[in-house]
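Field reference: "sequence" (input) and "structure" (output). Example, Cupin 2 conserved barrel domain protein:
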Amino acid sequence: MATDDRWGPFEPGKFGTSQKILVERSGGAVKLMKFEAGASFPAHTHPDRTEWIWVVEGRSKPKWRAQSSG
């Protein structure tokens, strides 16, 4: 992972990711995420909340569409 700190510190995540939670409420969360090269996050759902992520490094490819940094 790059050492770019413009977003502040990221917490280590699972499966080769790190995250910074911007907002977390009982109904959901807004996160910044970084994906290491080759990282793969298992498919999952959140039936009780909404999760918005913004990829700032790497690439995420949910089943509905790809998301890249930027």
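The chain has no helices and six strands.
Residues 11-68 form one domain.
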